[in-house]
């Protein structure tokens, strides 16, 4: 018996509904069936995949029969042929030489940089003075990724680079789901702004490559140093253009997603006073233990002592996964769990919608970090998958989790954040990753030493 069902609405109404409200469309499609056919043309049939076992088939068991296709082609305009856009053997080759950048020892070293950069931001925040939280988190994570991956201090260029990243993301998002993709060389206002943003980012990246070649020892512990040391099977170094593509990939995929997740976390904590209180208790207890023992924790040790902070991040990633949609395309016909899918089939997988299954999570719209007190082992493998899965799963997922938890803990230890009045409820904006539409102005309130002592 087939597990594929046809969507009841017409092709035209589906198109306009998705263009107007893609998240609402995907959430409404989830209860319709395990795999929902959008009844598009037989030339390129399109399916929404809702069942975890079908997701696992696409991302893991049969991934060699699929490619990223259209989405990778659009992203390639910005990041070239890096790990996020390469397919099959080039992807496997790139992943092999990039994986050591995310070994545990390196992540522990990165943790110290995360703490240092976050404390610098905390020192700059003013009690009671509103801050554009999206901009603050973007610049913070941009500085962290530049320092950890490229051993580069952005300093005064940080705001300009963050703006360039934002331009590329907005233009890419508007293109991926557009029915017509205009050539990148056409001189439209969007294309011109996008190309200028790429030039801004390229200047930083190629500058870092040149600096690393001039002083390789200074970059030995960074991703850039790893790239400089890598040789192919014939002993040849990685070309500068390929290094640029990998650095651009890490720059865009490695900081914007974490920044967006953190803004959602601050928003969710504000609306869940009980969760915010539990987080403060945990943070204050950690510092009290340090005081009693006389031993200061390393950044990696601090991370291990914050299980509830990790749960806050995990629950944020459940409700607001940065990768809100995953696309796959099949060149040839193939079978999957008893159903046949024709050549040129396209599949849309939405963690955002799948994570909102009441049958799995119970009251799935509620923010409850304690769901993750025992990890995610109680659910089907792909009922919760904020970092994707299979060989194309996020290579930096452990780094991203560590970074988000340390930023959250370091700032929440010193400040409470509340939304500036008059903004209303946050509205998700599904760009390349999921952000709060229009950003969020928040007011930092410094926690007094007495308050921390009383809560501890």
Can you characterise this structure?
By secondary structure, the protein is an alpha+beta fold. The chain has a single domain, classed as Cytochrome p450 (Orthogonal Bundle). Helices cover 53% and strands 10% of the residues. The protein is built from 19 helices and 13 strands. The strands form four sheets. Strands 1-2-3-9-6-4 form a six-stranded mixed β-sheet. A three-stranded antiparallel β-sheet has the order 5-13-10. It has a two-stranded antiparallel ribbon with strand order 7-8. The chain is globular and about 65 Å long. Belongs to the cytochrome P450 family. It comes from Paenibacillus glycinis.
Strand order of the largest sheet: 1-2-3-9-6-4
**Would you give the CATH topology?**
Cytochrome p450
Number of DSSP strands? 13
- Tell me the fraction of residues in β-strands, as a range: 5-15%
Q: How far apart are the first and last residues' alpha carbons, in Å?
A: 58 Å
| Mean pLDDT rating | 91
Q: How many domain units?
A: 1
CATH class reads: Mainly Alpha
Kindly report the name of the CATH homologous superfamily. Cytochrome P450
Q: Based on CA inertia axes, which overall geometry fits?
A: globular
CATH architecture: Orthogonal Bundle
- Gyration radius (Cα, Å) is 22 Å
How would you classify the helix and strand content by structural class?
alpha+beta
Distinct helical segment count: 19
Indicate the low-confidence ranges by residue numbers: none
Largest beta sheet, briefly? 6 strands, mixed
Instruction: State the share of residues found in helices, binned by percent.
Output: 40-55%
